[in-house]
Amino acid sequence: MSSDQPEQRHRGRMQRKKAAVDAAITRADRDQGLLLVLTGNGKGKSSSAFGMLARALGHGMKVGVAQFIKGRSDTGEEAFFQRQPGVVWHLLGEGFTWETQNLTRDIKTAQRGWAVVREMLRDPSLGLIVLDELTYPLKYGWLEIDTVLADLKARPPMQHVVITGRGAPQALCDAADTVTELRDIKHAFRAGVRAQKGIDL
Amino acid sequence: MSSDQPEQRHRGRMQRKKAAVDAAITRADRDQGLLLVLTGNGKGKSSSAFGMLARALGHGMKVGVAQFIKGRSDTGEEAFFQRQPGVVWHLLGEGFTWETQNLTRDIKTAQRGWAVVREMLRDPSLGLIVLDELTYPLKYGWLEIDTVLADLKARPPMQHVVITGRGAPQALCDAADTVTELRDIKHAFRAGVRAQKGIDL
Q1: N or C: lower Cβ tally within 10 Å for chain B?
Q2: Cα torsion for A23, A24, A25, A26, to the nearest 10°?
Q3: Are residues A96 and A178 part of one domain?
Q4: What is the distance between the terminal CA atoms of chain A, rounded to a whole angstrom?
Q5: Mind listing the UniProt keywords for this protein, alphabetically (chains A, B) (predicted)?
Q6: A82 and A117, same structural domain?
Q7: What angle do CA A104, A108, A113 make, to 5 degrees?
Q8: Which residues between 163 and 182 in chain B have a beta carbon less than 8 angstroms from any beta carbon of chain A?
Q9: What residues of A are in contact with residue B40 (Cβ under 8 Å)?
């Protein structure tokens, strides 16, 4: 038994793995503007969208962001991205609906917000658009899912859109190219740690 | 039946919801450096870590990144964050193990990488550290989990660490404050779309 047998066995296994990975990469050969949905109760949905925003900026793309629920304008993400060139940023929310406690106003705010988004979805110079926490106005019925899906479908063919929020409607997931569900396995908040700068806001 | 009854009912429901949310926020009153794990097969783990990086930079924090597997240096995230002030960025990988096909070299690369990380974990000026795809060297046994956990535990008390990658070991999840599992519900790659700039790289 030669002493380099584990090394050889590893090499053989990895050669077969590489062949399988390479074949999958060869099969995927199309370019396309993607619709991504990040949903579920776990921490990291908006963060993930903002990470893609950073990636897109790294490739010199112009990007747009619409934040639907967050009313506060002191978040780290906003402070950071607002000072980057090539970023259009819209704060469209007034806080969670249990903060406003006014249904009529929530509906008006959401619909005014969607009009702003529609303009971005018609602008082919925007390579990536983040619709942060869009699922809530959909879930509460402040926006019509059919209107939203139609506007998404009519967007420029190479424009990527990332939608975040809990409880994404099934029709939105059906229309999406990539859907990730973030499951909350454990959260520091439940252990008594409040929202931390740089992590949660 | 008064015409503003739905509005009143909504207000009542939202007042109760607000009370519950506020009570939970009051209970969570500690500040602490968090250890976060983003695992699972779904798309968005590294993106999520990079989003938190952007948040931290927005609050004026200094941050560090170590990428364990990715050997390529042409990703959007690297191009973007490397040009930001306050970012320390280390590429510690040579690609996936099925690319190198050399076990001894993979082990040496990972261990040299961890020595770099250990220095970052001893630097209290770094408010957030991303250990991107650290789970792979742990899973393949190139790094000892006990060494990694001991170094993480010894870090400055207010330093946040975010670890990404599939198949996070149970001992790592046990040590973490927040764990999110990203489930792959649907992925454009399987429909024949290749990795897209700004989304996947």
Answers
A1: N
A2: 50
A3: yes
A4: 57
A5: ATP-binding, Cobalamin biosynthesis, Cytoplasm, Nucleotide-binding, Porphyrin biosynthesis, Transferase
A6: yes
A7: 150
A8: 173, 176-182
A9: 183
B10 and B75 in a single domain? The answer is no
Regarding whether A143 and A59 lie in a shared domain, the answer is yes
Predicted local confidence at residue B1, as pLDDT? 47
| Paired tokens of B190 | 């399987």
pLDDT at A37 over 60: yes
Instruction: For residues B132 and B52, give the distance between their C-alpha atoms in angstroms, rounded to a whole number.
Output: 12
Q: Is the pLDDT of residue B2 over 90?
A: no
Chain A's closest residue to B73, CA to CA, is: A58
ipTM > 0.85, yes or no = yes
Is there a domain that residue B36 lies in?
A: yes
Structural domain includes residue A197: no
The domain spanning residue A169 has which CATH number? 3.40.50.300
Q: Do B14 and B55 belong together in one domain?
A: no
Which two tokens mark A38?
A: 């990040």
What pLDDT is recorded for position B7?
A: 83
**Is the CB of residue A10 less than 8 Å away from at least one CB of chain B?**
yes
Q: Does B193 touch chain A (CB under 8 A)?
A: yes
DSSP A173: H
- Strand pairing category for A178-186 and B178-186: antiparallel
Across the range A163-175, mean pLDDT stands at 98
- Which amino acid is residue A119, in one-letter code? E
Which range (A98-102, A121-125, B157-161) has the least confidence? A98-102
A198 lies in some domain: no
Hey, is the C-beta of B50 within 8 angstroms of any chain A C-beta?
A: yes
How many structural domains comprise chain B?
2
- Residues A102, A20 within the same domain: no
Residue B168 has which token pair?
């996070």
pLDDT tens-digit profile of B107-138? 998 999 999 999 999 999 999 999 999 999 99
Both B13 and B99 in one domain: the answer is: no
Whether A193 shows a pLDDT value over 70: the answer reads: yes
Residue-number span of the structural domain to which B88 is assigned: 32-191
- State how far the alpha carbon of A199 is from the alpha carbons of B14, B33, B53, B79, B182, in Å: 27, 10, 8, 22, 17
The mean per-residue pLDDT over the stretch B32-58 comes to: 97
State what percent of residues in chain A have pLDDT above 90: 72
- Domain contains A200: no
Q: Is the same domain home to B173 and B115?
A: yes
pLDDT of residue A2: 52
In a mutagenesis test of the A interface, which of B8, B52, B57 is the best target, namely the one with the most A β-carbons within 10 Å?
B52
